[in-house]
Design goal:
Blueprint lengths: L3 H20 L6 H38 L15 H12 L8 H30 L3 E7 L6 H6 L5 E2 L7 E2 L6 E6 L10 H8 L4 H6 L9 E2 L1
Antiparallel strand pairs: 1-2, 1-4, 3-5
Helix pairs in contact: 1-2, 1-4, 2-3, 2-4, 3-4
């Protein structure tokens, strides 16, 4: 069975391939690029979201089988494409091509959009099944050793998110994943109220004052 970090790195591979395919549609012509992105990117995100969700299902079931909790359950993929958000992201990605013809910035923007939306399928599959599974205790956030301070705070000491309302907070190019936790496992320290609050919504100015050690860009809910 793959380790949580190996699965996280596998998710990075899936999202990187999706991003590369989307970036290939961009050149210095904004009108032609916009048309190509509108046609190609929704399908790219849909296809690789299915791959990300399948990775999550396989990992969830393997982890569950290893722990052998008392009640039966089989994970199901969760792919909820946010079509309108994706459409707005594509228009935002084309903006640098008008006038300045900044292809590099345009490709950087489409990378943010595609990576976030593709990884979302993995995260939603883990967190949704953790909510549905009668033997689930919740899920842990898995981040790289070089992850941003905000992500490290959310993953602090392997904290377990138990509440049904705790969603997966993800910023642009976030490489974090989620790992399920089941009955019979040592859950360690539960997530703190501050971690729950940060995972449930975008941070307000008041939140930022409470978290001065964790400056990050706007948090998008995945």
């Amino acid at each position: 069975m793959l380790s949580p970090d190996q699965v996280r790195r596998a998710l990075v591979v899936v999202t990187t391939v999706a991003v590369t395919k989307a970036q290939a549609e961009i050149d210095s012509d904004p009108r032609a690029t916009r048309a190509r992105l509108r046609e190609a990117v929704p399908q790219v995100v849909a296809d690789y979201s299915l791959g990300a969700a399948a990775l999550a299902v396989d990992y969830y079931d393997e982890r569950r089988e290893a722990v052998r909790p008392p009640r039966q359950y089989r994970a199901e993929p969760v792919v909820d494409l946010r079509v309108e958000r994706l459409r707005r992201g594509l228009l935002w990605s084309v903006e640098p091509l008008w006038g300045a013809s900044d292809v590099a910035l345009s490709r950087a923007r489409i990378a943010e959009v595609v990576q976030l939306e593709t990884a979302r399928a993995y995260r939603q599959t883990i967190t949704t099944n953790a909510q549905r599974d009668p033997s689930s205790l919740g899920w842990r956030r898995v981040t790289s050793g070089s992850g941003c301070k905000f992500c490290q705070m959310l993953a602090s000491r392997g904290a377990v998110y138990r509440a049904d309302t705790a969603r997966f907070a993800a910023h642009s190019n976030c490489s974090c994943s989620a790992s399920p936790v089941f009955e019979g496992e040592d859950v360690g320290e539960p997530a703190s109220a501050l971690q729950y609050e940060a995972s449930q919504k975008r941070r307000s100015e008041a939140d930022r004052k409470r978290l001065p050690a964790y400056p990050v860009p706007a948090i998008r809910m995945g």
